Amino acid sequence: MAPLIAPSVLSADFAHLSDDIRMINHSVADWIHLDVMDGVFVPNISFGFPVMTSIASLTEKPLDVHLMIVNPEKFIPQVKALGAHVMNVHYEACTHLHRVVQQIRDAGMEPAVTINPATPVSLLKDIIQDVYMVLVMSVNPGFGGQKFIEHSITKIQELRELIEVTGSKALIEVDGGVNLETGKRLVAAGADVLVAGNAIFANENPTQQILELKSLSR
Q1: Separation CA 202–CA 198 (nearest Å)
Q2: Coil, strand, or helix at residue 45?
Q3: Which of 71, 124, 125, 179 has the fewest Cβ atoms nearer than 10 Å?
Q4: 118, 127, 51: which is closest to 96 by C-alpha?
Q5: Domain architecture of the chain: domains with CATH
Q6: Considering 20, 64, 175, 192, which one is annotated as catalytic?
Q7: 172 exposed, middle or buried (CB, 10 Å; 0-12, 13-18, 19+)?
Q8: Which of the residues 35, 38, 106, 192 is marked catalytic?
């Protein structure tokens, strides 16, 4: 089964953002991944709703919105207004995660939960059947272009086992250091969705790179 590919706009050329969005539109990418950072939950600031509204007006791909922020539930209406397909919140940022997941679903979006590299998969046992997707961070969130954390392969395998044992239908997404080499191992371990930034946008032929990532299968 071929993975879904979600190019991360965080690595795009913001001086020519419309060109990069059109490139994604014309590629075999499945989604477009938007990383929102607040400088509080993670040590960096990315972009907010004015930029995402512009992206939403240009893209032909479903939006996968990843909120690396405190109190993400405050922004459910704004994310919904973008027409987002997936709203992704961090396990570590939500004191009442089950409530937030239900609020996202009630708003008409698919709820997803992200775990940081130091957060064990076992903590998802009581929420895994309620989410559309789990995003495993394979770098520490906050910056693009970081080195892939090797333990992420084991976490994907553990998450796949948890999904099978519980009968969950959740997809497994991975973000951080994803390229053709790591992507192949991640898909073999059980990943369904690959988020790639530098591997795509720093490539001389990004459309071809997306196609090659899409061609990885288990």
Answers
A1: 5
A2: strand
A3: 125
A4: 127
A5: 4-214 (3.20.20.70)
A6: 175
A7: buried
A8: 35
